[in-house]
Amino acid sequence: xxxxxxxxxxxxxxxxxxxxxxxxxxxxxxxxxxxxxxxxxxxxxxxxxxxxxxxxxxxxxxxxxxxxxxxxxxxxxxxxxxxxxxxxxxxxxxxxxxxxxxxxxxxxxxxxxxxxxxxxxxxxxxxxx
Length: 129
Prior knowledge:
Elements: H1 7-20, E1 25-29, H2 30-37, H3 45-51, E2 54-58, H4 67-82, E3 86-89, H5 95-102, H6 104-111
Parallel strand pairs: 1-2, 2-3
């Protein structure tokens, strides 16, 4: 969906509900996650990403593109899917845009077995002047 439609709000609501049910959850904005994973970033983040039962990855495709960042995202998602871990991913990008950035294989794996929820509507944050 577009900007301000409520994707992040919905994703975090799902994570809060899961946590209330005793399911381990963690959430990251993908651009910030890339900083945490970089050398000198937050210690322990990668281990947490690869083990938490439910991870929220907010704003996929918004991070500054680089070969290293694309590799990190695809490796993390691939590992989580391979281990049967769940994730909620929000993005403003279309499937073709994500496939062009991360590769068809990675996006096919993400969408395989996924429930895609398209959130549409006006920007809820926008104030009418």
